[in-house]
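U., I forgot to send this yesterday:
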Amino acid sequence: MRSSDLVLSPLDGPTSLKDHAYQRIKDAILTLQLKPGAPLVEAELAERLGVSKTPVRDALLELRREGLVTKIPYSGTFVSEITPKDTREIIEIRAVLEGLAARLATPRLSETDLVYLESLIDRELDAIDAGNIELATQLNGEFHKIILAQVENQRLVALVENFEDQLQRFRMLSSQLNGRLRKSAEEHRRVLGALCSRDADRAEEFFREHLLSVLDDLTSEGTQSNKEAG
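Result:
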């Protein structure tokens, strides 16, 4: 999708136009409204957002610092591609970090937390059955966030959150794979079982296996797509 095809509502309010532009464009990237490789034309984005090019230019510069936008000399500015190497490296790191987070959170999660985690899984499956993929993806991410919120290691939390934007794009990509969201929900239920049993070893193991399962499905899909394209 080109930036000229994107539906963006004009920004309201005179304050912090750069921040507003940044958030609108970032949201479009993370939800794949602007897909990897899509061109980002300042004038077109500014027109869609109802602002001058300056806040858009500043927003794109910030997104470049975060790795979500790439500027290619003599070609233009684009949404950063997600390469197979990026996918593997980031998910492998997240598998280790979130596995540890699950271990540390196991004794700290309250009974209320556990009931809420179970409700997230049930609601995710209901959303999948209803064909509401966007909601299912949001509930999937919420499951991870509730566990991370109970980790009393701020350096670990910061490391996990450092990859959150890229992981959001991976979630959106994986949600497009046939059966992946349902598979993730069932893998979450397996993690929940370990959390309810207060089995920190299994919680860590199952969380790592869950994320590596996502990686396997994403890389398998990429390999299959390449074969079909060839």
